[in-house]
Design a protein that fits this description.
This protein is an alpha+beta fold. The chain has one domain (2-86): Heat Shock Protein 90, CATH 3.30.565. The protein is 20% helix and 31% strand. The chain has a four-stranded antiparallel β-sheet, with helices on one face. Strand 1 and strand 2 form a beta hairpin. The protein is globular, with a radius of gyration of 16 Å.
């Protein structure tokens, strides 16, 4: 969902190309999206009647880290999401068979 939200935002607001970079390390995935729009994103004011524009709120709620950095052209938005509640556990060995 975070990938979808960040890429959708970049495509919607950036007038040019968009670059997506995904990296897995230490039990987490690092999602980084670059777009040519230099305007930094912000969380909209609380409004229970608002429909849409909740992508950043969702991203912040599920991410362990979030960063926005201006680039020479545009900006890069990065979110880090844990792949499991316990990132140190071996996910492959935790599967069960029936």
């Amino acid at each position: 969902m975070v990938v979808s939200e960040l890429v959708t935002s970049a495509v919607k607001y950036a007038p040019g190309p968009v670059v997506l970079d995904l990296r897995i390390s230490d039990g987490a995935v690092r999602v980084s999206v670059w777009g040519s729009d230099p305007v930094l994103p912000g969380v909209a004011a609380h409004d229970p009647q608002r429909v849409g524009r909740h992508g950043l709120e969702i991203t912040l709620a599920v991410s362990q880290a979030y960063e926005v950095r201006r680039e020479p052209v545009g900006k890069r938005v990065t979110a880090v999401i844990a792949l499991a509640d316990d990132p140190g556990r071996n996910i492959a060995s935790s599967s069960t068979t029936t």
